[in-house]
Amino acid sequence: MRFIICVKQVPETNDLKIDPKTNKVLKQGVSTIINPFDQFALEEAIKIRKEGDEIIVISMGDTETKSTLMRCLALGADRAILLNDDCFKDSDTFGTSNILAAAIRKFDDYSIIFCGNSSFDTGSSQVGPELAAILGIPQVTYAESTEKVENGKIRIKAQTDEGYRIVESTLPLVIAGIPPSSFQPRIPPLPKILAAQKKPYEVWNVEDIEGDKAKFGSTGSLIKVKKLYEPPKREQGILITEEPNIAVGKLIELLSKDKVI
Amino acid sequence: MLEFTEEQDLIRESVKEFAQKKIAPIALEMEKNKEIPKDVIKGMAELGLLTCTADPEYGGSGLNAVSAGVIAEELAKGDCTGSTCVFYLVQAAWGYLLNKYGTEEAKKEIFPKTSSGEWFLGIATTESGGGTDVVGGKTTIKKDGDSFIVNGEKMYISGVREAANNGGGHITIAHQSSELGSRGMTVFYLPLTAEGITPTYIEDLGREGISCGGFSIDNVKIPKHYILGEENRGFYIIHEGYEYARALIAVICAAAGLKSLENGMNYVKERNVFGKPLAKFQEINFRLAEHYTKLEMLKRLGYEALRAIDLEQEGKGNRFETSKIVAMSKMFASDWACEAINDVIQWQGAFGYSRECPDQAAWRAIRSFSLAEGTREVMKMIVARELLGKELVSYK
């Protein structure tokens, strides 16, 4: 089987600065990480892979994104592809999904497309479902674990508002994963980092994916950003550090003073 | 501009994540318990940090010196007590020496166990009579058929308890042909579990997660394959290990100092005195700028020293040039870092002086490095020797 994992590089911090003229996040000096949900998606693929299976990680981004893809190779992916072209810039989720779908169509024998349910930065949760719609294949969102892959079908445990549901689907499909609270992302060990340097890493541009340029970048995007701004800083709260018997009295006093109670 | 390879950036990312998540939250606890928790050692081993300079065929990660420095830097930022830094750096530096000069048999026996964290590999050259003056040591090694017999003692050694209790040993130097002085010394691996070794322990001022102590060596028999390099060439061999450790120490001092400045900056931005943040006082922001500049210079020099070691390994360097730049990098490393940390303690007032403050632990740890692996004064001797020539050195 061939697994394709869509990953995104995201800022490590929420404390971002925005350029008010361009409405863009200022990336200078901001360290980045792999979107934690995407690492979970990769870990799920590694968990169910069998001998002879191939795991390909794909990311759309600038050249800095290579570090995230190399981390994926160190974690156990077999091949990495960076989608990088000027016409990919300023894509919204729909533009991104079109680019990813065009790249994925280059592989006619993929079985599962894994992605994180949402990203740490924008958190729209749209790319997974849009990919499935564009490619015309089933999707399972809020997937917490892949239970069984057998006879061209897969069983998945997915979160719901009330609890869990067990879903069975045919292959190929898109799985948008969300990690359980117990999930501990692995840290790539040094020997795997060294070995990753020898794994295939490719950069694909718009010609390589042979897609419709009109669907990519700002022209292919449905969302136009009018204004991007930082939320107003909240004032620091009051921390009551005393023992509970004193703290309760203090809390009541403060709430009464503000006429909350 | 410090530049690292993509591979080194990934190594940094992994070690940073590990150090910040697994070490930083329990660092002060390590000092209280006087040990590095087993799961931290296991984590370091799983990441491939222990004796990482050994070749992969022996269980190491085959890292070069700059990559080893990247690890040291991130551990120093995560562990305010310096305990894991010492645990790491001696194994990286002396693992490098064992990898370069050790026999196949010794490497196959020792590295798989040190890389897995089961054993500890340390360095033991200091004796109660002196450390800097290696030739002044009294420990002897004598040939006995196919084996060697060692007698003497070593003192102020890191990781004695770790090696004596869990296995492993120390790279050691002793006189084989004492009449030849520095030309009659031999370097070898001494297992601390051997019969005839009696450990003793000393309470250090800092980096208390790793033990410090000494051991007497009473007719300890070691096999021939534990000898590193040629017999009687030990004085020259041992200095390569020292230099590796010294350059790593320079990076550790810079990183610990910069981490402390980061703590200090967070504090002075938040803390108000006389109606304005402490950071607004010129006394503080000038000193911050000075410390930061010195420590950034130090970090760069530390990496230059590590690069010089790598170049020498690639056959592009020069032994004496390496010695000089390594000595330059270590000369003020501890002093500059301690000065910065001391100011951060001052800025934080009474909290700075409390045991809860990570910076006091960092100061106690970093203070050791103007002594360990060659004193500040010896670094000056080396640099002066390279500038003036051997004829004008102060120690002859």
Structure description:
The complex is a heterodimer of chains A (261) and B (396). In chain A, 26% of the residues lie in helices and 26% in strands. Chain A has helices spanning 36-48, 66-75, 93-104, 127-135, 190-196, 206-209, 244-257, and strands at residues 2-6, 9-11, 18-19, 24-25, 32-34, 54-60, 79-83, 112-116, 139-150, 153-159, 164-170, 173-177, 201-204. Chain A has one domain (2-230): HUPs (Rossmann fold), CATH 3.40.50. In chain A, helix 2 (66-75) crosses helix 5 and helix 3 crosses helix 4. Chain A contains seven helices and 13 strands. Chain A has a nine-stranded mixed β-sheet with strand order 11-10-9-12-8-1-6-7-13, sandwiched between helices. A two-stranded antiparallel sheet of chain A has the order 2-5. A two-stranded antiparallel sheet of chain A has the order 3-4. Chain A is an alpha/beta fold and 261 residues long. In chain A, helix 2 links the parallel strand 6 and strand 7. Chain A starts with a strand and ends with a helix. The radius of gyration of chain A is 22 Å and the shape is globular. With 396 residues, chain B is an alpha+beta fold. Chain B has three domains: 6-120, Butyryl-Coa Dehydrogenase, subunit A, domain 1, CATH 1.10.540.10; 122-228, Butyryl-CoA Dehydrogenase, subunit A, domain 2, CATH 2.40.110.10; 234-392, Up-down Bundle (Butyryl-CoA Dehydrogenase, subunit A, domain 3), CATH 1.20.140. Chain B has helices at residues 6-23, 27-33, 38-47, 65-78, 83-101, 104-115, 160-166, 234-270, 282-313, 319-331, 333-347, 349-352, 358-367, 376-388; strands at 120-124, 140-144, 147-158, 168-175, 185-191, 197-202, 212-223, 227-228, 272-273, 276-277. In chain B, the strands form three sheets. Chain B has a four-stranded mixed β-sheet with strand order 1-4-5-8. Chain B has a four-stranded antiparallel β-sheet with strand order 2-3-7-6, covered by helices on one side. A two-stranded antiparallel ribbon of chain B has the order 9-10. The longest helix of chain B has 37 residues, at 234-270. The model of chain B has no long low-confidence stretch (mean pLDDT 96). At the A-B interface, helix 2 and helix 5 of A face helix 1 of B.
